[in-house]
Amino acid sequence: MRLLVVEDEVRLATALQRGLISEGFAVDVFHNGPDGLHAAQEAAYDLIILDIMLPGLSGYRITEALRKQENWVPILMLTAKDGEYDEADALDLGADDYLTKPFSFVVLIARVRALLRRGATPRPTVLRVGDLVLDPAAHTVERAGTTVELTPREYSLLEFLMRKAGMAVSKSDILHHVWDAHYDGDANVVEVYIGYLRRKIDQPFERHSLQTVRGAGYKLTE
Amino acid sequence: MFVRSRSLRERITATATALFAFAVAVGAVLLIALQKQTLLRSSDTAALKTAHDVAVLVQSGRLPTPLLTGGGGDTYVQVVDAENHIESFSFGADGAVSLLSTTQLAQARGGARLSISVGRGVQDSYRVVAVPAGQSTVVVASSMSSVEQSIRLLRTAALFGAPFGVLVMALVTYWIVGQTLAPVATLRAGAEEITMAGLAARRLKTPVAHDEIYRLAVTLNAMLDRLDSATSRQRTFVGDAAHELRSPIASARLQLEVAQRLGEATDWNEVATDVLTDIDRLQRLVDDLLVLARLEETEGALGVRERVDLAELATEVSRTYSDARVPLRLSLVGDAAAIVNGDPDGLRRILVNLLDNAVRYATTEVDIALTSTKSPRPSIVVTIGDDGPGIAVAERSKVFDRFYRVAASRSRDSGGTGLGLAIVGDLVRSHGGTITLEDNLQRPGQGEDHHPGLLVRLTFPLAP
Fold first, then answer.
1. Under an 8 A CB cutoff, do B254 and A56 touch?
2. What is the pLDDT of residues B242-300, one digit of tens each?
3. What Cα–Cα distance (Å) separates residue B3 from each residue in B16, B100, B172?
4. What ipTM was predicted for this assembly?
5. d(Cα A182, Cα A187) in Å, to the nearest integer?
6. Nearest to A12 among B244, B254, B265 (CB)
7. Which of A9, A31, A79 lies nearest to residue B251, judging by beta carbons?
8. What SS3 state is found at B2?
9. Residue A143 to residues A128, A167, A211, A221: CA-CA distances in angstroms?
């Protein structure tokens, strides 16, 4: 497993490298943002340990740039800042985990292992199906660049369908994931909300992306 | 105490209503008294006229019986002789007994107006006037019932009307005061929202009318703005300080932890050196933070103020740089005394911080020079010049901000705490001096772009 460490504190970076090597990883270290980003783009790393405050280019921008290029390498952010918004921003921009300095090396290693187990499967921060875009962090939906206003229930129904885009999803699955376990009302409520969604994301744009699959349920396509 | 605990609106209404009620009561009493007086006078005038008319008849001896005077049954006339015996009387009047006793008759003849009560069945009060007609006297009695009735009517009206008026007045006052105070209530609600939502979220709504309340809201908003910017500056500073303090701790901790895990393979000597570097940085940071905190505590006022010879101090400080990475050249221009009033430790720190920076960034040499000047006022000028990369004009004002780092030297391993120039700025200000950053035109930079090095110009007023 090959790891990339981008950290401007030279002594901390060196110690980190030494520790990780002793755990059996191959480790490359860079001390500024542009070099770190370049390395991440050039070589296929299994995980990146990234400081936020970096000379030249911040860890936020590096994460953003990588995710925009559909590079899904797991990213563990390190920072000495302790704002809850800093942490939220890092995760929303596409980082996978976050550690505040000073941290325990044992915990760092455990988190690295956990992230490696998950691997580099696509984990887009923004969901896209054709020109339909849903941004969970900003809680917004756009169709062909036009903002679509949705109620919370419509929003979570759409998010669920977008995560299963191209697959037929049964009514009971939808009911189970979008409505809570205690919902014991009419299952036709799904049909009603599918109707609402069609009126907002399809009809105004003359699309038929939300299809009924006879006997199976519903399917969202491009 | 009871009154004070009430709202302003209730207090104003209560006070205004009480004053109004008092005025209405006094007015009503006066009005009734005046009205009674007027009615009595007009009744008396009519009675006297009747009496005079009858007296003329008596004296001319053409007295009919009963007298054909008095009207409506509420005016009666009797003519009595000297012994108070009836000589003649009007229709409806008593023909046998005089209305007045002998004493009363004497008083009435003297011009007194008497009020008597005649009871025959229903008690009735009469107003009596008398006019002498020779030996006889004409006595005219007018019933008071109509006067009393109109007074009674007036009193009833006042008794019911006044409280109603007072009530209306109270309600109107309450409403008007409420209208007047409504913007105050809005301000209060706004202030409460700010208390709950925090300073950054919102400001007080200013009323439309540009009145006293508007000016109050504008003033309060300006105060909130100042507080807000002070708080956010403080928050940024605390966040930055936390960041700077945590970094060396994180570094030291990780190095020790990794070294321990590696066990045998560890070069403990190297680890100790590296950890000590972090501890040094931590120590410098804590020192600088303490200096800043103390400067803030005294709000720039110097704790110590004594005569300090800057030339001597500069010579002494320069000597400590004898084995620095670049040579330091000190030149004292002129022989004038360089005595300033100030804190020797503070002045030393100014020189050390600036020289540390200059030595860190200089390529070949650092110059420090002292000159005294007479204009605009007697002062001593200290310049520290280097031939390093210099600082871009746009960044020159920012480098005095706490934890500000020029982008090119962002890496903390250059050794600075990020507080040095902030401390210098505060110290220079508290010594009444000025500090400016300029291009060091005497020494072209040694970098690729030949950007001139940095020249720091310090000016302190000379001690008198």
1. no
2. 888 888 999 999 999 999 988 888 889 999 999 999 999 899 899 888 888 888 777 66
3. 14, 59, 20
4. 0.72
5. 13
6. B254
7. A9
8. helix
9. 10, 20, 17, 13
